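Pair request: fold both.
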Amino acid sequence: MHVGYHIMAWRRQQGFTQAVLAEHASLSRPYLSRLEKGKADPALSCLRRLALALDLKVGQLVEELPPEPALSRDELDRLARGALRPGTREAHAQKGTRTLALMNRERRKALGLYVPKGRAPAKPGPHSSAVNASRWLRASLGDKQWSAILQRIDKLASMDGVDS
């Protein structure tokens, strides 16, 4: 994990938008975005301002992740079902299902299992919105819950006969 992932995870856990955190830390929002994506390395003074804005110690910001939310098996199943069938009412009610559905579709495209109707197969590669959205959701859920939801999607897809 890079420092940017930690910054995003703490920001998401505390409910800040990039704009709000950037303002509290006296940084620009585009710079904070680059930090979170790992495209820029923060100076120590920048880490201090971010830690202060998040009410953390610098070491805590850099080395620790926030506590992960505990999702029940039922919640994991609902998210996984929503990722496989994003058009259902149940999927619309679940926060994060659109992100998971987009990420799942991009995974299937990369494996050559999904071709949009009326189009030639696209070059494999991550779609930027899928990557950003999945990074955001992963930071919100935590690594343990993220792995669990991906396993549930794969399991439900194999039970339903959907290749993923």
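--- second member of the pair ---
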Amino acid sequence: MATCKSLLDERFPLARRTAYAILLVSSAAMAQQPTGGQVPAGGGNAAGVRLDPFVLYPAVSVFEGYNDNVTLANSNRVTSTITVLSPALLAELKGASTAYRLSYVGNYGWYSNSSADNYDYHEFRGGADFDFSARSSLKLNAEYLRKSDPRGSTLASTNVVTPNKWDQTGIGGIYSYGAMGAQGRIEVEAGAFEKRYSNNRTITETLDYDLQRFGGTFFWRVGPKTEWLVQGTQIRTDYISPLSIQDNRENRVLTGLKWEATALTTGTAKFGYSEKKYSSTGVAANPKGGIWEIGVRWSPLTYSVVDLTTGKTFNDSQGGLGSTYVTNEYISLIWNHGWTERIRTTASGYYATDNYSGIGRSDKLSQLGLKVSYDMRRWLMFAAEYQYYERQSSVLGADYKKNVFLLSVRATL
């Protein structure tokens, strides 16, 4: 969440929500290597190639940059130039009442001074939308990810020689009943994910887990473009290793408002209560208390958009060295502004606090970024960006600062 954006975007709403709920949205995300590939947007500026029955949208990005703290170390920093190649492909099949999507995004990174941190990430996703009637619809999604935790990005990846590699698979769906604009409507969702680590097993053995998510949301229209909602969710997380004591069930209840294009803003604001119950008697306390999820988009001009995201969650501690869970609070602000038809800037800021149970550790994480992009052609974009990362920790020697400079080119058809 270095920019609080993810490749689990609007095309995959359940996957995005589930990942939001189960991943450590602070430490790991704040330290990711630069990844540039995004699924090219079908039907947008990119041109497609018809390969019946699908339309294909290919893209490729190349990054060249410099990272002054590859392993997020407090001292003895590893500095290196980095090259990233990111191919992407989206295949779409659209009908009158159905739509199908298959996509791949790859990120291949090479550090000139730290080959142990080289990486190759793969993201495969599929989706299908069915509109049975004006009132009834179903969205199905599936994913397979092969990635790693960069060294220093999590507690379990701090003292390793090579990054912890993992595979994640998931499937889920959302069924909606009620026409858009109706007085009331409901959404029911379900999903299952599993994550498996493949190396550094003396450290990562206890990190493998299976997860199931079940939930429902009731919407009630209170204005022309505003809905009141009530949402209930249960997340079940079962760790595979008998050495783990983190098996738990989390129950969430939230209520709030969802509005569209009201006074130049669109967004959702939800407030509620969450409680995690761990199965093991070895867990001293179960986290519970107030949580929130807020996302607001402000569009004062057609060419200027500000996205505000903030939230509070209880997450399982990843290799917590005595910690079972992390209380995470975060806020993100992203401003996209088009200065001309070709020149655009993106300014981003992120701040989060991670409080680890059982070990008295508290981290403050921050990020600032600025990107300038130039659309030389409809299909060709050049960009330059700077990213700054910092962690201030109550644990001696856990602080770090990192500066990343990147130049990139992105091409589509």
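Observation on the second member. The chain is about 5% helix and 60% strand.
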